[in-house]
Amino acid sequence: MAELRSEEEQLEVIKRWWKENGTSLIAGAVLAAAGVLGWNAWQNYQEGQAEAASVRYQQLVNMTTGNTLADDQLANARELIDEITSDHGNTLYAELAQLLEARLAVQEGDLEAAKSALENVASDSSRRYVQSLAWLRLARIEIANDNPEAALSLLDQSITDALAAQQANVRGDAYAALDQTEQARDAWQTALELAQAQNQPLYGVQFKLDDLGVEEVTQ
């Protein structure tokens, strides 16, 4: 009997506890389930946004591949770039679209517009490789603008090792624009050595060294 009373007392305790806390437990469980469903919905939304951005960017690439674009084609491309950067501003595709916008501006000879697009990527991107591409292209624009000193300053940015050969190549171009032949030679030789070490193609550098009378760098 004592054991039975003990069990009954335990049941009463459980009943009282459930009466006091059961509602909050159910509510917590519902909220937890809603949280899981909400997270899954958010994940699905994000995946859908990334897929949409990818499709639009591929359309942009297809649109701008090939020969010089006509005015109406350029207008359509810029409209698509604006759409991608506006609707998918936090994605990789928005940053790639801005890099492509800069390339189109260079083709039109509008170096200031190209600089503006590249500066946006360089300052806002959290992706080091994309940011590094922007720094390198900005440096090329400064050389084209007869401002090689500014190019050298840009090349001192923290550029990813994957682009070290390209960095050295552009640095050589900047030194060459300053008529600093020895520094240009060293930079271009470094560029070739890095490209070979990383198994990356790097076109045109050996021709620059040939013009300086430098023998071909071999592995």
| N→C terminal distance | 93 Å
Mean pLDDT: 79
Overall 3D geometry?
A: globular
Q: Using only CA atoms, what is the Rg?
A: 30 Å
Task: Show the helix and strand layout.
Blueprint: H1 2-64, H2 71-87, H3 92-107, H4 111-124, H5 128-144, H6 148-154, H7 164-177, H8 181-197, H9 205-211
Characterise the protein shown here.
The chain is an all-alpha fold and 219 residues long. Mean pLDDT is 79; it is low at 1-11 and 39-46. It has helices at residues 2-64, 71-87, 92-107, 111-124, 128-144, 148-154, 164-177, 181-197, 205-211.
Question: What is shown here, in short?
Answer:
With 219 residues, the chain is mostly helical. It has helices spanning 2-64, 71-87, 92-107, 111-124, 128-144, 148-154, 164-177, 181-197, 205-211.
Name its key features.
219 residues, disordered N terminus, 0% strand, mainly alpha
